[in-house]
Amino acid sequence: MLVSLNEVLSLAEKNNYAVGSFNTPNLECARAVIDTAEKLNVPVIIMHAQVHEPVAPLDVIGPVMVLSAQRAHVPVCVLLDHGETLDYVAKALDLGFTGIMYDGSLLPYAENVANTIKAVEMAKSCGAGVEAEIGQLAAREGGTDANAGGPVYTDPDLAVKFVKETGIDALAPSFGTAHGIYKSKPVLDLKRVAKIKELAGLPLVMHGGSGVSPEDYRIAIQNGIRKINYYSYMSKAGTTAAQQYLAENDVTFYHDVALAAQKAMAADVEKAMHIFYNL
Prior knowledge:
8 strands; 15% strand; TIM Barrel; 48% helix; alpha/beta
C-alpha cells in the first residue's frame, strides 16, 4: 500500500528501528526491494534519485514505482532522493510521490533554507513528507569519487536551527558515511548522531548506508537513525550475479540475466533488512 514518508517514519520511531530506503532505478531493483519487504512483512521506502534521470527518466520510472507501491501488501513510501531543483521536486509530487528529499547542501545556508521552505510548502500541499540535508557526504550520490576526501560534519546547533527554520520532517546529517563503494572502513561519529537527535527531536537519516558494519548500523539506530539509504552494495550484488550467470551459462535472453541479478539483489536487501528492523 502506498503511504507517506511520515507514516513509515512514525512506525520506525515507535518500534525503534530504521526503515530501509532503497534506490530503484529499474524494475528489477523495485521488485527485489518490495518482494523482500513483503517476505519479511516490513514497511519500506523505494527511491528515485535525480542523478539517475539519464538511467531512468522520472516520468517513466516514477509511475512504475507508485503503482508497485499501491499494489504492495506492506506499507511503501515512494520518495524522491536528492532532488536538487524545485522543478524536479514538483514533477515527483505531481506523479504521486509521497516523500521528497530536497538537497540544497551545496548551496549557501540561507539559500538552502529558502529553497527547503518552498519544498516543504509544495510537499505538504500534496500530503507528502520532507527530508533535507545539512552538511555534505564525502561523495555525491551516484558519483565515482567515493571517499575522495572527507565529509563536512554537521554542526548539531546548526542542525537544530535548520530544522526550526524549515519545518522538515526528517534530517540527513553528515557524520562520516559516504555514497558509493567504500575504499576504506568509514569512521563514523555516532555520538554526533545522538546529540543531533537529542537537540532536533525528529527522525534522522543515514545517507551512504551501504557498506556500514552491522555493529555501526545498530549503534546508529540506537542513537536516532530512523531511515537508512541503501543502494550501492545492493547494485553491486546484482552486477556480480549477472557476471557469474553470463560466465556459467550459454545465454540467449537478457531477462534471464536480469532475473539472476534481481535474485542476488533481493538476497542482499534481506541481509540489510534483518539489521535495520532488528529481525
